[in-house]
Write a structure and sequence with these properties.
Arc Repressor Mutant, subunit A, mainly alpha, homodimer, 3 strands, Four Helix Bundle (Hemerythrin (Met), subunit A), DNA-binding, three-stranded antiparallel beta sheet, about 220 residues
Chain lengths: ~220, ~220
Amino acid sequence: MMQTHRSPSDAIPAAHDRVFRALRTRIMHGDIAPGAALTLRGIGREFDVSMTPAREAVRRLVAEGALFLSSSGRVSTPELTNERIEELAALRSLLEVELASRALPRAHMALIDRLQTINASVAEMVAKQDAVGYIRTNLEFHRTLYLRAQAPAMLAIAETVWLQLGPTMRALYGRLRRTEPPHNHRLIIAALKAGDEPGLRLAVRSDVTQGLHLLTS
Amino acid sequence: MMQTHRSPSDAIPAAHDRVFRALRTRIMHGDIAPGAALTLRGIGREFDVSMTPAREAVRRLVAEGALFLSSSGRVSTPELTNERIEELAALRSLLEVELASRALPRAHMALIDRLQTINASVAEMVAKQDAVGYIRTNLEFHRTLYLRAQAPAMLAIAETVWLQLGPTMRALYGRLRRTEPPHNHRLIIAALKAGDEPGLRLAVRSDVTQGLHLLTS
DNA sequence: ATTTCATATTTGTGATCACTTAACGGCATG
DNA sequence: CATGCCGTTAAGTGATCACAAATATGAAAT
């Protein structure tokens, strides 16, 4: 029957929020392939909830562009056209260059150390050919930097772009088998150390753009 | 009882979508003041639906940042801090300068004519001191231009920024009683005619930034 | 008159159900 | 062998309900 509302002061999130977060992470990290279909009853079964919270989670994800809603109400992960991918890449570039630029004056040594640690994990994932792990650690690298920008609305929008690209990125990085560690990340870290704003902007732009250019060509 | 699913090929949207669109327009146009509270039962009563579609509409709007969801589940329009307003203004500038720049090479005479017609309506709303009408026609001016950019994802994000600013803009433009017609819109149109990209970028940036700077100072 | 506490009302949450429509499969027909 | 049609199944939609938490109300005490 029911049950509800347990999250006032304690930390237990509402069921729909738990489902939302779990699905969102999966999509952003590329756990789900492009075009994969989801059903409300299926989601409910998996998370042991009824259709109602499953529907709310799906609605939120559709609103963020993480899921595609067909005219008949069916939901699936989006299959992006090349044009759309280019556009989202341009958005990433626009937003993330600005975020990095704003983070630069606040970037102290502790942040740079953390970025280097995360970057080691990224390199490890590349070596292990772990596509999902690569996406996850790569996003963690970027998010850690952008958090310093103190621009929550801008970061939130950047995350919705990542979300829209999630399934496609998985398909991309799952295909191409590269073994080189991320060169642009080193450039980003170097520019942060040097306080070199033009260099930082260029490095972020290159890092964001390069991977997605491979897909469309 | 029930009733459902009527929108396959014909044009009748689902109830939750109708509610969503109606609320979204209200919020974007500044029909609702910042901090105003909404209840699911109240929305359902107004639109003659049950709580279920009302909840879905609200969830979507919360996901877009158009509504604020308190920790106890109450929803209201957001009350923005000055910092947040500055950030959203920076986002508008970033996105809309890019959109205008992309629209420039595709802007033909028919578009410029339409912009001038819309701009006349804007001036009329300013003369009538109609705050809501001003916001509506002003957004129509910008949207008409940006549609030419052929960048739907970018435009969608710009719209979510407008949404977040909606209630606050109403509070702003409701206060300041200006009577001058929009100067920057003329600059935008002139730059479009001349094919002057730097001039266009500057004019859009000024138009987007000026109004919101008044509020925070 | 103000504060405190108990009660009542409001409100969001999640489960369930009836209903309609879209997707799927098999069968007949060309 | 392909194609169109019909019945079955799967899936989304919206109404309703029980419940718990939050808020509002009012009374009592200092």
